[in-house]
Design a protein that fits this description.
Blueprint (H helix, E strand, L loop, with lengths): L1 H28 L4 H9 L7 H11 L5 H12 L14 H36 L3 H15 L3 H14 L18 H16 L3 H14 L5 H8 L4 H13 L1 H24 L5 H11 L2 H29 L1 H4 L9
Helix pairs in contact: 1-14, 2-3, 5-8, 5-9, 5-12, 5-14, 6-9, 7-8, 7-12, 8-12, 9-11, 9-12, 10-11, 12-13, 12-14, 13-14
């Protein structure tokens, strides 16, 4: 297991390097001039003169060839210096320190909520003998499977904030008030639900339903029932543990889907995470901040996949004996 973790860490390092190269190249090839954007922002939107743009480009090092600029950035990045934001003038690490914890909090809440709800609904769908209940679950999943995450977010915002005022509409606290644990929890509910119950939720439920349902009438499960084991023991030990392997493996990949949706969700609910910072950086052509956000996002996805693989190995002893682990199915 330790060797597998080391091997995955080495692979993750290579992925991060490749991701940084691709991101740097794409931003360099994108239309527009970061120096001109900075000068326009400083002047309130007035176009800058070519001479002023050329002077600032020299100060920012944008006239150097792309390989030189990438090497300069990478040599500082390995020491923890991700550069300075073009727009704010703050170190990128400070901006990440202000935004990454909020994104991690929202993502973690959505993952836990999605995991628990998919587990509960999937188990009911797999074990129930009531046809009407199964049809109701199928209808619910059909509707949810066709709804993009931003539509779910807007519906929740309208139903629980705009129309009924039951929940806060956005942010992490009321304007002018400090952030408290209770207030933060209230502001977290809607964005976490919007992120957790997107179209991917129906996939999670189906994985639980299929994984557990195919074992419901298996011989070892029938034997456990005949021996008089309690129902919860049969479900937990003989159905859930082996039946949740596909679901657990998919959940790690699904974190990437959640991260992709978290940016939209953060904008809709005014959540102060990386999503809003990324959109602002993209509009302003703030390349240092944008590259850092992409890399942090990649690291989160890589870490989630590693955790999912280790969880699969814990649930399925056969996965520990395979070189490819959870991906060797």
């Amino acid at each position: 297991m330790a060797l597998r973790v080391v091997r995955r860490m080495a692979t993750a390092a290579l992925v991060v390097v490749a991701l940084s190269v691709v991101c740097f190249g794409l931003l360099d090839a994108a239309p527009g001039d970061p120096a001109a954007s900075v000068l326009e922002a400083r002047s309130g939107g007035r176009p800058a003169s070519p001479a002023a743009v050329a002077e600032l480009r020299g100060e920012m090092g944008l006239d150097d060839p792309p390989p030189v600029r990438y090497w300069r950035w990478a040599s500082h990045a390995v020491r923890g210096d991700l550069g300075t934001s073009y727009m704010s003038g703050r170190p990128v690490t400070e901006t990440l320190g202000d935004t990454v914890p909020w994104t991690l909090l929202l993502t973690a809440a959505a993952v836990l909520l999605s995991f628990a709800a998919a587990l509960a609904v999937g188990l009911v769908a797999a074990l129930t003998r009531r046809a009407w209940l199964r049809r109701g679950i199928d209808l619910l999943l059909f509707v949810m499977g066709g709804m993009p995450g931003f539509v779910v977010a807007l519906l929740l915002l309208y139903a629980f904030a705009a129309a009924t005022h039951l929940m806060p509409s956005g942010g992490v606290s009321r304007p002018g008030e400090p952030v408290t644990a209770y207030g933060l929890l209230a502001h977290l509910v809607l964005p976490a639900c919007a992120l957790a119950f997107g179209h991917h939720f129906s996939v999670y439920v189906r994985l639980v339903e299929n994984g557990v349902g195919r074992l419901r009438d298996a011989p070892h499960v029938q034997n456990a029932r005949v021996r008089g084991l309690p129902r919860r023991t049969v479900v937990a030990r003989h159905l859930m543990r082996p039946g949740l392997v596909p679901f657990t493996a998919r959940l790690g990949v699904g974190v990437g889907t959640l991260i992709a949706g978290v940016y939209t969700t953060e904008v809709i609910f005014s959540w102060p995470g990386m999503g809003r910072a990324a959109i602002t950086a993209a509009r302003a052509q703030d390349h240092p901040l944008l590259i850092a956000i992409v890399l942090v996002t990649g690291l989160i996805v890589i870490a989630a996949n590693l955790v999912a693989e280790l969880a699969v190995a814990a649930l399925d002893p056969r996965a520990r004996a395979r070189p490819g682990g959870a991906h060797a199915h």
